[in-house]
Amino acid sequence: MVVPKNHPRYESLLLREKVKDCLKEGIISEVGIAAHGRGEAFDYFLGERTTEQAETAIKASARLLCRAENPVISVNGNIACLVPEEIVKISKILPLKIEINLFYRTVERETKIKKRLEKFGGKNILGVGENANECIPGLDSLRGKVSREGIFTSDVIIVPLEDGDRALALKNMGKKIIAIDLNPLSRTSLCADITIVDNVVRAMPRLIEEIKKLKNKDIEEEFIFDNAENIKKSIEIMKNNLIRLQEKIDER
Ligand code: ATP
Q1: In which pathway does it act (predicted)?
Q2: Where exactly are the structural domains of the chain?
Q3: How far is the CA of 250 from the centre of ligand 1 (A)?
């Protein structure tokens, strides 16, 4: 379908087209479509823009990633569909390991995602088939499978669109978690060390810019970032946007 450029939901419809194509290609699962829809609803409340709070969280994430020893990005079908180029870019700048980590795991889908990332220049992609040779304590063997050289031994993990159980189990392993999640109320958002309440398609390019600025600079160890406070402010923005929308109805 050709999306007319003057459509008020142009960007959002373009993403839907992308998601639809990735479903056909077997990159995204059917359940991934539902997750995308939930994200769209929260993005609507957020005003479909990167807020000041998201900017603060992005800057804090860039600092944490630049100081990390073994950072990893956990890749599922949705983000492999939406931001494959950015995943690869960030992996090369830092460096950061790329690990495929699916909720509904099949070797077939893992391989398709790996190929998609390789098409964008991704190298040494972990988590496919036998490479996922360890298990996150507290999760069943299928959902808990991770790569020893990747997530299992990582110190900092970026988890865009992660399931709450898994995020919590990773946190319990002592990892620092950076979540990118449009839902500030999700269990993943609430348990992360840093939650970027933003759409991955906006947050990832911004994160790359911040990392580029910080790279090869001395970063002082201490930085103050209060995740709970930041999340509360994001919710406040959504609340105020809803009030504004409500007032518009009154004006009609
Ligand atoms: P949790 O298990 O953490 O409590 P959940 O059940 O909502 O939360 P999932 O459905 O496993 O989590 O993951 C999808 C999450 O990703 C949702 O919170 C959704 O808002 C978010 N999401 C979907 N699309 C995007 C996107 N493009 N950018 C950022 N977040 C997104």
Answers
A1: Cofactor biosynthesis; coenzyme A biosynthesis
A2: 1-217+224-252
A3: 32
